[in-house]
């Protein structure tokens, strides 16, 4: 699977016709590139971020005001997260409109949907980390909406056992945002590209 993933990103031979802009617009590849940029910028943010209710917001202020390039890195991370979601939505729309979700690609369609939901959850967990008023109320609204769905109360107790923005909930959001969800996204991306190659790439469905 890893070999297919690397071959998909770095092929030995590229056909001339594949270098032209086609109906796919390389939206999947662009989305993965945005994900890599987020990983790189996120690793730099980790150096200064402190995941505690007392220090989180002040660490963001320090990063933006006293660290050379800190404001740029944080803005890059935030804007790239918006771009990632946009590219995944467009990629999903393209797959639907061209019928690329049909046999024999149903499994890859399911994997792609999982990637979409994980990317949304990743963005949601990152929203709380600055610990400002916007982050608090946005996360609080999401938790209230979660409570009305089946098993929502159980999930809410797992995510925010001591209340939104408190020590344990902030730490759980932090762990989800920087370790658990990125690893899941990366693993599913490997599998996604592997399935693309196994299904003989992408073909024009129009």
Account of the 3D structure:
- The protein has 206 residues and is an all-alpha fold.
- It has a single domain (26-198), classed as Cytochrome Bc1 Complex, Chain C.
- It is built from 8 helices and no strands.
- The longest helix has 32 residues, at 167-198.
CATH architecture: Up-down Bundle
Shape: globular
Helical segment count: 8
Uncertain residue ranges: none
Write down the overall mean pLDDT: 90
State the domain count: 1
**What is the top-level CATH class?**
Mainly Alpha
Strand content: under 5%
- As an assembly, this protein is single chain
Largest sheet: none
The CATH homologous superfamily is called: Cytochrome Bc1 Complex, Chain C
Per DSSP E runs of 2 or more residues, the count of β-strands stands at: 0
CATH topology: Cytochrome Bc1 Complex, Chain C
Rg for CA atoms = 19 Å
Order of helices and strands, N to C? HHHHHHHH
Structure class: mainly alpha
Features:
0% strand; single chain; mainly alpha; Cytochrome Bc1 Complex, Chain C; 8 helices
In brief:
Helix content is 70%, strand content 0%. It has 206 residues and is an all-alpha fold.
Question: What's the arrangement of secondary structure elements?
Answer:
Blueprint: H1 2-9, H2 27-46, H3 56-66, H4 70-98, H5 106-128, H6 133-146, H7 152-159, H8 167-198
């Amino acid at each position: 699977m890893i070999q297919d993933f690397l071959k998909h990103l770095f092929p030995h031979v590229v056909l001339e016709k594949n270098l032209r802009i086609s109906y796919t617009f390389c939206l999947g590849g662009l989305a993965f590139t945005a994900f890599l940029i987020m990983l790189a910028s996120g690793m730099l943010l980790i150096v200064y971020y402190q995941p505690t209710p007392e220090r989180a917001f002040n660490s963001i202020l320090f990063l933006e005001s006293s660290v050379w390039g800190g404001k740029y890195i944080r803005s890059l991370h935030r804007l790239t997260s918006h771009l990632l979601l946009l590219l995944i939505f467009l990629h999903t729309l393209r797959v639907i409109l061209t019928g690329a979700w049909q046999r024999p690609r149903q499994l890859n369609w399911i994997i792609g949907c999982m990637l979409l939901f994980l990317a949304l959850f990743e963005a949601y967990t990152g929203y709380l980390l600055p610990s400002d008023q916007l982050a608090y109320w946005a996360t609080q609204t999401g938790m209230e909406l979660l409570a009305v769905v089946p098993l929502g109360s159980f999930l809410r107790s797992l995510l925010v056992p001591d209340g939104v923005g408190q020590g344990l909930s902030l730490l759980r959001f932090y762990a989800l945002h920087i370790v658990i969800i990125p690893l899941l996204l990366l693993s599913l991306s490997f599998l996604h590209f592997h399935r693309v190659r196994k299904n003989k790439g992408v073909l024009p469905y129009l």
